[in-house]
Structure to design on (257 residues):
């Protein structure tokens, strides 16, 4: 887990915050991620909790999470007996969250949790503060897929978010009184932001750092190609998005994904 800010610079904690880490086979990363959060959160929040949602990992992730829970009273563990998907894990965490601000990030150490401080500052004026990766440290094909997805979402749904799937987002708790999560998969970010935009919620975007994954494998690798694979595949399908391809996408976004 990277750390760029001097923690002593962070002062006047005033927020109460629930931090959610969905985790799937992160045995080499989860301890570092949770312990980085344990170090930072007392500097930025008066009361806080960390909720790790183990999504049916087959490695030692759950055992490590249980150790962390025994070691740190603020750590809670939700265990999905079997893999239910990223969106389902996020929803489990959000449903269990008890504080005023809800933040989620990945368990794999690709973000700098110290940068949470910047998001908190903006949360006074915005219901949602969404990170965008200044320089995404993922393989080229992932970056190309993500670019395509972001452009498509912007064109089809009119959502002007630079990096919709960036796992560094802060929400006021009240957002989830209105926004309903139905997506069990990786499109959950799109689902949340589409609803929030339609409800007139204010979203601010903040540039955040991103680092290469040091341990374990990416499992969110084919989110975008999964979506593309669900668009019409007829040989007559035009290459550019048209009404025919937009309709199923809209339908997909409004159904379980
Ligand atoms: N709950 C849940 N989390 C997942 C799943 N797949 C990946 N994750 C978690 O989601 C985060 C991002 O996954 P990753 O594979 O690194 O995706 P990438 O960063 O988009 O390449 C990590 O914290 C993973 O542990 C899944 O099926 N269920
Ligand atoms: Mg990752």
């Amino acid at each position: 887990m990277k750390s760029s800010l001097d923690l002593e610079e962070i002062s006047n904690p005033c927020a109460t915050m629930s931090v959610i880490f969905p985790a799937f086979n992160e045995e080499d990363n989860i301890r570092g991620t949770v312990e980085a959060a344990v170090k930072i959160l007392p500097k930025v929040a008066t009361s806080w909790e960390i909720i790790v949602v183990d999504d049916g990992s087959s490695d030692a992730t759950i055992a490590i999470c249980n150790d962390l829970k025994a070691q740190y009273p603020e750590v809670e563990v939700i265990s999905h007996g079997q893999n239910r998907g990223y969106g389902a894990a996020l929803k489990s965490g959000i449903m269990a969250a008890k504080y005023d601000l809800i933040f989620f990030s990945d368990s794999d150490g690709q973000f700098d949790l110290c940068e949470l401080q910047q998001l908190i500052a903006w949360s006074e004026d915005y219901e949602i503060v969404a990170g965008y990766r200044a320089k995404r440290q993922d393989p080229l094909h992932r970056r190309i897929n993500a670019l395509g997805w972001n452009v498509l979402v912007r064109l089809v749904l009119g959502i002007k978010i630079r990096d919709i799937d960036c796992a560094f987002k802060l929400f006021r708790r009240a957002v989830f009184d209105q926004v309903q999560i139905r997506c069990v998969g990786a499109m959950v970010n799109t689902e949340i932001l589409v609803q929030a935009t339609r409800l007139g919620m204010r979203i601010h975007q903040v540039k955040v750092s991103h680092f290469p994954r040091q341990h374990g494998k990416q499992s969110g690798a084919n989110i975008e190609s999964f979506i593309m694979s669900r668009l019409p595949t007829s040989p007559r399908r035009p290459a550019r998005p048209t009404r025919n391809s937009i309709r199923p996408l809209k339908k997909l976004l409004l159904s379980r994904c």
Notes: The pocket of guanosine-5'-diphosphate (ligand 1) is lined by residues 22-24, 26, 53, 55, 83, 85-86, 89, 106-108, 110, 138, 213, 218-221 (CB under 6 Å). The chain has one domain: 13-142+160-215. The CA atoms of residues 152 and 241 lie 8 Å apart. DSSP finds nine helices and seven strands in the chain.
